[in-house]
Amino acid sequence: MSVIDARTAAMPRGASIPILPSIARGLDGEAVAALMGGAVLKGCDPAELLERAGIDPSIYGNVGMAIDGRSYFRLVQQIQIALDDAFIGFFHEGCRMALETERTRSYLHCSTMGEALRVSIRFTQALSSDIGPRLVEDGNDGVMHVCTYHTIAGLDRDIFVWFRFVWIYHLFSWMIGRSLNLRRIFVRGARPVQPNGFERFALFHCPIEFGAPIDALVYDRNDLHSSLVHGSLAEYEAYNAGAPDWFALPSGDLTWRGRTEQMLRQAQRCGDWSPPIEEVAHRLRTNPRRLRRDLAREGASFQQIRVRLRGELAGAFLLATDIPVTVVGYKLGFVEPGSFTRSFIGFSGMTPSDYRRQYKSDSTRVAVATTLLTEQTPP
Protein backbone atom coordinates (compact mmCIF):
# COMPACT_ATOMS: atom_id res chain seq x y z
CA MET A 1 0.00 0.00 0.00
CA SER A 2 1.05 3.55 -0.41
CA VAL A 3 2.94 5.14 2.42
CA ILE A 4 3.01 8.57 0.77
CA ASP A 5 2.08 11.41 3.09
CA ALA A 6 -1.57 12.42 2.78
CA ARG A 7 -0.58 16.06 2.35
CA THR A 8 1.15 15.29 -0.95
CA ALA A 9 -1.06 12.44 -2.15
CA ALA A 10 -4.54 13.91 -1.73
CA MET A 11 -5.89 16.36 -4.32
CA PRO A 12 -6.98 19.71 -2.88
CA ARG A 13 -10.67 20.64 -2.87
CA GLY A 14 -11.65 22.66 -5.90
CA ALA A 15 -8.74 21.40 -7.99
CA SER A 16 -9.32 20.28 -11.56
CA ILE A 17 -10.00 16.52 -11.44
CA PRO A 18 -8.75 14.45 -14.38
CA ILE A 19 -11.85 12.36 -15.15
CA LEU A 20 -11.03 9.03 -16.77
CA PRO A 21 -13.18 7.61 -19.53
CA SER A 22 -15.10 4.49 -18.64
CA ILE A 23 -13.81 1.25 -20.14
CA ALA A 24 -15.61 -1.92 -21.10
CA ARG A 25 -13.41 -4.25 -19.08
CA GLY A 26 -11.99 -3.86 -15.61
CA LEU A 27 -13.44 -3.69 -12.11
CA ASP A 28 -17.08 -2.71 -12.63
CA GLY A 29 -19.01 -0.12 -10.66
CA GLU A 30 -20.77 -2.67 -8.47
CA ALA A 31 -17.43 -4.12 -7.36
CA VAL A 32 -16.07 -0.59 -6.88
CA ALA A 33 -18.97 0.16 -4.53
CA ALA A 34 -18.24 -3.05 -2.59
CA LEU A 35 -14.57 -2.09 -2.32
CA MET A 36 -15.60 1.27 -0.86
CA GLY A 37 -17.98 -0.34 1.64
CA GLY A 38 -15.76 0.19 4.66
CA ALA A 39 -15.17 3.85 3.81
CA VAL A 40 -18.87 4.54 3.25
CA LEU A 41 -19.75 2.77 6.52
CA LYS A 42 -17.35 5.12 8.31
CA GLY A 43 -18.98 8.21 6.81
CA CYS A 44 -16.90 8.94 3.69
CA ASP A 45 -18.58 10.39 0.61
CA PRO A 46 -17.97 7.89 -2.23
CA ALA A 47 -18.28 10.57 -4.93
CA GLU A 48 -15.60 12.66 -3.26
CA LEU A 49 -13.23 9.69 -2.94
CA LEU A 50 -13.73 8.76 -6.58
CA GLU A 51 -13.08 12.32 -7.71
CA ARG A 52 -9.90 12.48 -5.64
CA ALA A 53 -8.77 9.29 -7.38
CA GLY A 54 -9.49 10.84 -10.80
CA ILE A 55 -12.50 8.59 -11.47
CA ASP A 56 -15.93 9.59 -12.77
CA PRO A 57 -18.21 9.36 -9.67
CA SER A 58 -21.08 8.02 -11.80
CA ILE A 59 -19.30 4.66 -11.89
CA TYR A 60 -20.40 3.98 -8.28
CA GLY A 61 -22.67 0.92 -8.36
CA ASN A 62 -22.89 0.99 -12.18
CA VAL A 63 -22.12 -2.43 -13.74
CA GLY A 64 -21.98 -0.77 -17.16
CA MET A 65 -18.81 1.14 -16.25
CA ALA A 66 -15.40 -0.05 -15.08
CA ILE A 67 -11.98 1.15 -13.92
CA ASP A 68 -8.53 -0.01 -14.96
CA GLY A 69 -5.65 -1.16 -12.74
CA ARG A 70 -4.08 2.27 -12.25
CA SER A 71 -7.41 3.85 -11.31
CA TYR A 72 -7.99 0.99 -8.88
CA PHE A 73 -4.61 1.66 -7.24
CA ARG A 74 -5.36 5.37 -6.87
CA LEU A 75 -8.79 4.63 -5.40
CA VAL A 76 -7.28 2.32 -2.78
CA GLN A 77 -4.79 5.07 -1.93
CA GLN A 78 -7.51 7.64 -1.42
CA ILE A 79 -9.56 5.31 0.80
CA GLN A 80 -6.49 4.62 2.95
CA ILE A 81 -5.71 8.31 3.28
CA ALA A 82 -9.29 9.30 4.09
CA LEU A 83 -9.63 6.65 6.80
CA ASP A 84 -5.97 6.64 7.90
CA ASP A 85 -6.29 2.87 7.57
CA ALA A 86 -4.24 0.51 5.40
CA PHE A 87 -7.08 -2.05 5.65
CA ILE A 88 -9.59 0.36 3.97
CA GLY A 89 -12.15 0.19 6.77
CA PHE A 90 -13.03 -3.51 6.62
CA PHE A 91 -11.97 -4.29 10.22
CA HIS A 92 -13.14 -2.90 13.54
CA GLU A 93 -9.46 -2.22 14.28
CA GLY A 94 -7.61 -0.58 11.42
CA CYS A 95 -3.93 -0.09 10.71
CA ARG A 96 -2.91 3.58 10.74
CA MET A 97 -0.73 4.64 7.85
CA ALA A 98 2.13 5.56 10.19
CA LEU A 99 2.17 1.94 11.38
CA GLU A 100 2.00 0.75 7.78
CA THR A 101 5.08 2.86 7.07
CA GLU A 102 6.96 1.22 9.93
CA ARG A 103 5.86 -2.22 8.82
CA THR A 104 7.09 -1.49 5.30
CA ARG A 105 10.40 -0.21 6.62
CA SER A 106 10.86 -3.36 8.71
CA TYR A 107 10.63 -5.87 5.87
CA LEU A 108 12.40 -3.78 3.23
CA HIS A 109 15.60 -4.27 5.24
CA CYS A 110 15.40 -8.07 4.94
CA SER A 111 17.66 -10.00 2.59
CA THR A 112 15.20 -12.49 1.06
CA MET A 113 11.51 -12.61 0.26
CA GLY A 114 10.95 -15.38 2.79
CA GLU A 115 12.49 -13.33 5.57
CA ALA A 116 10.49 -10.24 4.54
CA LEU A 117 7.28 -12.27 4.43
CA ARG A 118 7.81 -13.64 7.93
CA VAL A 119 8.61 -10.19 9.33
CA SER A 120 5.50 -8.78 7.67
CA ILE A 121 3.34 -11.59 9.10
CA ARG A 122 4.67 -11.09 12.64
CA PHE A 123 4.01 -7.37 12.38
CA THR A 124 0.49 -7.94 11.06
CA GLN A 125 -0.34 -10.44 13.80
CA ALA A 126 0.51 -7.79 16.39
CA LEU A 127 -1.74 -5.16 14.80
CA SER A 128 -5.23 -6.59 15.17
CA SER A 129 -7.14 -9.68 16.25
CA ASP A 130 -9.24 -9.30 13.08
CA ILE A 131 -6.42 -10.53 10.86
CA GLY A 132 -4.36 -13.69 11.36
CA PRO A 133 -1.81 -14.59 8.68
CA ARG A 134 0.47 -17.62 9.01
CA LEU A 135 2.78 -19.80 6.91
CA VAL A 136 2.11 -23.52 6.49
CA GLU A 137 4.22 -26.09 4.64
CA ASP A 138 2.33 -27.22 1.54
CA GLY A 139 4.23 -30.49 1.07
CA ASN A 140 4.71 -30.08 -2.68
CA ASP A 141 7.75 -27.82 -2.71
CA GLY A 142 5.49 -24.90 -1.85
CA VAL A 143 4.66 -22.79 1.19
CA MET A 144 1.08 -21.76 1.97
CA HIS A 145 0.35 -18.23 3.20
CA VAL A 146 -2.96 -18.64 5.02
CA CYS A 147 -4.91 -15.44 5.66
CA THR A 148 -7.70 -15.22 8.26
CA TYR A 149 -9.90 -12.13 7.99
CA HIS A 150 -12.77 -11.20 10.33
CA THR A 151 -14.37 -8.32 8.45
CA ILE A 152 -17.20 -6.12 9.71
CA ALA A 153 -20.62 -7.71 9.21
CA GLY A 154 -22.41 -6.43 6.14
CA LEU A 155 -19.26 -5.66 4.14
CA ASP A 156 -18.17 -7.72 1.14
CA ARG A 157 -15.51 -9.98 2.63
CA ASP A 158 -14.74 -11.61 -0.73
CA ILE A 159 -13.64 -8.40 -2.39
CA PHE A 160 -11.47 -7.56 0.61
CA VAL A 161 -9.70 -10.92 0.28
CA TRP A 162 -9.09 -10.21 -3.40
CA PHE A 163 -7.81 -6.71 -2.58
CA ARG A 164 -5.34 -8.12 -0.04
CA PHE A 165 -4.14 -10.86 -2.39
CA VAL A 166 -3.54 -8.30 -5.16
CA TRP A 167 -1.56 -6.16 -2.73
CA ILE A 168 0.54 -9.10 -1.49
CA TYR A 169 1.21 -10.29 -5.04
CA HIS A 170 2.32 -6.89 -6.33
CA LEU A 171 4.29 -5.93 -3.23
CA PHE A 172 6.46 -9.03 -3.06
CA SER A 173 6.83 -9.20 -6.84
CA TRP A 174 8.17 -5.64 -6.77
CA MET A 175 10.50 -6.47 -3.91
CA ILE A 176 12.17 -9.34 -5.81
CA GLY A 177 12.05 -7.57 -9.17
CA ARG A 178 9.79 -10.01 -11.04
CA SER A 179 6.40 -11.65 -10.87
CA LEU A 180 5.93 -14.23 -8.14
CA ASN A 181 5.50 -17.75 -9.43
CA LEU A 182 2.38 -18.55 -7.41
CA ARG A 183 1.54 -22.25 -7.43
CA ARG A 184 -2.12 -21.96 -6.41
CA ILE A 185 -4.62 -19.71 -4.65
CA PHE A 186 -7.40 -20.88 -2.34
CA VAL A 187 -10.47 -18.67 -1.88
CA ARG A 188 -13.36 -19.32 0.50
CA GLY A 189 -15.76 -17.28 -1.61
CA ALA A 190 -17.40 -18.17 -4.91
CA ARG A 191 -15.91 -17.18 -8.25
CA PRO A 192 -16.72 -13.48 -8.80
CA VAL A 193 -18.71 -12.92 -11.99
CA GLN A 194 -18.97 -9.54 -13.69
CA PRO A 195 -21.28 -8.85 -16.66
CA ASN A 196 -18.34 -7.33 -18.57
CA GLY A 197 -16.37 -10.59 -18.36
CA PHE A 198 -13.51 -9.21 -16.29
CA GLU A 199 -11.81 -12.06 -14.38
CA ARG A 200 -10.43 -10.56 -11.18
CA PHE A 201 -8.22 -13.54 -10.38
CA ALA A 202 -6.72 -13.98 -13.86
CA LEU A 203 -3.89 -11.58 -13.03
CA PHE A 204 -2.32 -14.14 -10.67
CA HIS A 205 -1.59 -16.57 -13.54
CA CYS A 206 -2.08 -19.67 -11.41
CA PRO A 207 -4.81 -22.19 -10.58
CA ILE A 208 -7.58 -20.79 -8.33
CA GLU A 209 -9.74 -22.99 -6.08
CA PHE A 210 -12.99 -21.27 -5.14
CA GLY A 211 -15.22 -22.45 -2.30
CA ALA A 212 -12.12 -23.63 -0.43
CA PRO A 213 -12.03 -24.04 3.37
CA ILE A 214 -9.36 -21.32 3.67
CA ASP A 215 -8.06 -18.18 1.97
CA ALA A 216 -4.42 -18.75 1.03
CA LEU A 217 -1.67 -18.14 -1.50
CA VAL A 218 0.79 -20.94 -2.21
CA TYR A 219 4.30 -19.70 -2.97
CA ASP A 220 7.01 -21.48 -4.90
CA ARG A 221 9.69 -22.31 -2.35
CA ASN A 222 12.36 -20.96 -4.70
CA ASP A 223 10.71 -17.53 -4.57
CA LEU A 224 11.12 -17.44 -0.79
CA HIS A 225 14.89 -17.76 -1.26
CA SER A 226 14.98 -14.91 -3.79
CA SER A 227 17.00 -11.84 -2.83
CA LEU A 228 15.29 -8.46 -2.57
CA VAL A 229 16.27 -6.05 -5.32
CA HIS A 230 14.57 -3.08 -3.63
CA GLY A 231 15.39 -2.16 -0.06
CA SER A 232 14.42 1.40 0.81
CA LEU A 233 11.27 3.28 1.71
CA ALA A 234 12.16 5.97 -0.83
CA GLU A 235 12.09 3.38 -3.63
CA TYR A 236 8.73 2.11 -2.45
CA GLU A 237 7.23 5.60 -2.31
CA ALA A 238 8.56 6.35 -5.80
CA TYR A 239 7.03 3.10 -7.06
CA ASN A 240 3.64 4.00 -5.57
CA ALA A 241 3.86 7.58 -6.85
CA GLY A 242 3.81 6.12 -10.37
CA ALA A 243 0.37 4.51 -9.71
CA PRO A 244 1.30 0.97 -10.82
CA ASP A 245 -1.23 -1.03 -12.83
CA TRP A 246 -2.55 -3.56 -10.32
CA PHE A 247 -4.39 -5.54 -13.00
CA ALA A 248 -1.19 -6.24 -14.97
CA LEU A 249 1.69 -8.60 -14.30
CA PRO A 250 4.01 -6.98 -11.74
CA SER A 251 7.31 -5.65 -13.04
CA GLY A 252 10.56 -4.37 -11.60
CA ASP A 253 14.29 -4.43 -12.08
CA LEU A 254 14.97 -7.90 -13.45
CA THR A 255 17.03 -10.34 -11.45
CA TRP A 256 19.08 -13.01 -13.21
CA ARG A 257 16.11 -15.30 -12.89
CA GLY A 258 13.89 -12.66 -14.49
CA ARG A 259 16.38 -12.04 -17.29
CA THR A 260 16.70 -15.75 -17.94
CA GLU A 261 12.92 -16.15 -18.08
CA GLN A 262 12.69 -13.17 -20.43
CA MET A 263 15.31 -14.65 -22.77
CA LEU A 264 13.68 -18.09 -22.74
CA ARG A 265 10.31 -16.56 -23.55
CA GLN A 266 11.87 -14.72 -26.48
CA ALA A 267 13.26 -18.05 -27.69
CA GLN A 268 9.79 -19.61 -27.39
CA ARG A 269 8.31 -16.89 -29.56
CA CYS A 270 10.84 -17.88 -32.21
CA GLY A 271 9.92 -21.55 -31.95
CA ASP A 272 13.03 -22.55 -29.96
CA TRP A 273 11.47 -24.46 -27.08
CA SER A 274 14.55 -25.68 -25.23
CA PRO A 275 17.65 -23.54 -25.90
CA PRO A 276 20.85 -24.63 -24.11
CA ILE A 277 22.28 -22.59 -21.27
CA GLU A 278 25.30 -21.69 -23.39
CA GLU A 279 23.09 -19.90 -25.90
CA VAL A 280 21.06 -18.09 -23.23
CA ALA A 281 24.18 -17.06 -21.30
CA HIS A 282 25.73 -15.66 -24.49
CA ARG A 283 22.63 -13.56 -25.20
CA LEU A 284 22.71 -12.31 -21.59
CA ARG A 285 26.39 -11.36 -22.05
CA THR A 286 27.61 -13.72 -19.37
CA ASN A 287 28.94 -17.29 -19.30
CA PRO A 288 27.18 -20.52 -18.32
CA ARG A 289 29.12 -21.01 -15.10
CA ARG A 290 28.39 -17.50 -13.86
CA LEU A 291 24.73 -17.73 -14.90
CA ARG A 292 24.31 -20.98 -12.94
CA ARG A 293 25.95 -19.37 -9.91
CA ASP A 294 23.84 -16.18 -10.09
CA LEU A 295 20.64 -18.18 -10.51
CA ALA A 296 21.57 -20.38 -7.54
CA ARG A 297 21.96 -17.26 -5.38
CA GLU A 298 18.35 -16.42 -6.23
CA GLY A 299 17.16 -19.93 -5.36
CA ALA A 300 16.65 -21.00 -8.98
CA SER A 301 18.26 -23.14 -11.63
CA PHE A 302 18.36 -22.85 -15.41
CA GLN A 303 16.85 -26.30 -15.90
CA GLN A 304 13.96 -25.61 -13.51
CA ILE A 305 13.09 -22.36 -15.27
CA ARG A 306 13.28 -23.91 -18.73
CA VAL A 307 11.13 -26.90 -17.75
CA ARG A 308 8.54 -24.68 -16.06
CA LEU A 309 8.18 -22.27 -18.99
CA ARG A 310 7.89 -25.14 -21.44
CA GLY A 311 5.36 -26.84 -19.16
CA GLU A 312 3.29 -23.66 -18.82
CA LEU A 313 3.12 -23.35 -22.60
CA ALA A 314 2.17 -27.01 -22.94
CA GLY A 315 -0.61 -26.48 -20.41
CA ALA A 316 -1.80 -23.46 -22.38
CA PHE A 317 -2.05 -25.53 -25.57
CA LEU A 318 -3.97 -28.23 -23.71
CA LEU A 319 -6.56 -25.81 -22.32
CA ALA A 320 -6.89 -23.14 -25.01
CA THR A 321 -6.94 -25.47 -28.03
CA ASP A 322 -8.32 -28.86 -29.01
CA ILE A 323 -5.02 -30.00 -30.52
CA PRO A 324 -4.39 -33.70 -29.76
CA VAL A 325 -1.99 -34.32 -26.89
CA THR A 326 0.57 -35.99 -29.15
CA VAL A 327 0.58 -33.00 -31.50
CA VAL A 328 1.07 -30.60 -28.57
CA GLY A 329 4.20 -32.54 -27.65
CA TYR A 330 5.53 -32.36 -31.21
CA LYS A 331 4.78 -28.62 -31.42
CA LEU A 332 6.93 -28.06 -28.33
CA GLY A 333 9.86 -29.98 -29.71
CA PHE A 334 9.39 -33.39 -28.06
CA VAL A 335 10.43 -36.19 -30.41
CA GLU A 336 8.42 -38.92 -28.66
CA PRO A 337 5.01 -38.79 -26.93
CA GLY A 338 6.47 -40.61 -23.93
CA SER A 339 9.12 -37.95 -23.34
CA PHE A 340 6.45 -35.23 -23.48
CA THR A 341 4.27 -37.10 -20.99
CA ARG A 342 7.15 -37.65 -18.56
CA SER A 343 8.22 -34.02 -18.77
CA PHE A 344 4.66 -32.76 -18.25
CA ILE A 345 4.11 -35.04 -15.24
CA GLY A 346 7.29 -33.59 -13.74
CA PHE A 347 5.89 -30.09 -14.28
CA SER A 348 2.25 -30.52 -13.24
CA GLY A 349 2.05 -33.82 -11.35
CA MET A 350 -0.39 -35.32 -13.88
CA THR A 351 -0.47 -36.53 -17.47
CA PRO A 352 -1.38 -34.08 -20.26
CA SER A 353 -4.70 -35.86 -20.82
CA ASP A 354 -5.61 -35.70 -17.13
CA TYR A 355 -4.62 -32.03 -17.00
CA ARG A 356 -6.87 -31.20 -19.97
CA ARG A 357 -9.75 -33.23 -18.54
CA GLN A 358 -9.51 -31.62 -15.10
CA TYR A 359 -9.07 -27.97 -16.06
CA LYS A 360 -10.67 -27.53 -19.50
CA SER A 361 -13.86 -26.22 -17.87
CA ASP A 362 -12.01 -23.72 -15.65
CA SER A 363 -12.70 -20.39 -17.36
CA THR A 364 -9.98 -18.55 -15.41
CA ARG A 365 -7.33 -21.05 -16.44
CA VAL A 366 -8.53 -21.05 -20.04
CA ALA A 367 -8.41 -17.23 -20.15
CA VAL A 368 -4.85 -17.24 -18.84
CA ALA A 369 -3.88 -20.01 -21.27
CA THR A 370 -5.34 -18.10 -24.22
CA THR A 371 -3.41 -14.97 -23.29
CA LEU A 372 -0.18 -16.93 -22.89
CA LEU A 373 -0.56 -18.56 -26.32
CA THR A 374 -1.26 -15.20 -27.93
CA GLU A 375 1.88 -13.72 -26.38
CA GLN A 376 4.26 -16.65 -26.69
CA THR A 377 3.58 -18.72 -29.80
CA PRO A 378 5.36 -17.87 -33.06
CA PRO A 379 3.33 -15.88 -35.61
Lateral strand order in the biggest sheet: 3-4-7-5-6
**Order of SSEs:** HEHHHEHHHEEHEEEHHHHHHHHHH
Report the sheet with the most strands, covering strand number, pairing sense and barrel closure. 5 strands, mixed
Helical residue percent band: 40-55%
Question: What does the overall shape look like?
Answer: globular
How much of the sequence lies in strands comes to 5-15%
- The pLDDT mean sits at 85
Can you tell me the number of structural domains? 2
> Rounded to an integer, what's the Rg over CA atoms?
22 Å
Number of strands: 7
Number of helical elements: 18
Termini separation comes to: 39 Å
Low-confidence stretches: 1-24
Structural class: alpha+beta
Fold and architecture overview:
This protein is an alpha+beta fold and 379 residues long. The protein has two domains: 6-241, no CATH class; 256-376, Homeodomain-like (Arc Repressor Mutant, subunit A). The chain is 50% helix and 7% strand. The chain has 18 helices and seven strands. It has helices at 6-9, 29-35, 37-41, 46-52, 69-83, 97-108, 113-127, 157-176, 221-224, 233-241, 256-269, 277-283, 288-297, 302-320, 325-331, 337-348, 352-359, 363-376, and strands at 27-28, 66-67, 134-137, 142-146, 184-187, 208-210, 216-220. Strands 3-4-7-5-6 form a five-stranded mixed β-sheet. A two-stranded antiparallel sheet has the order 1-2. A hairpin with a 4-residue loop joins strand 3 and strand 4 (142-146). Helix 11 crosses helix 14 (302-320), helix 14 (302-320) crosses helix 16 (337-348) and helix 14 (302-320) crosses helix 17 (352-359). Residues 1-24 have low confidence and may be disordered.
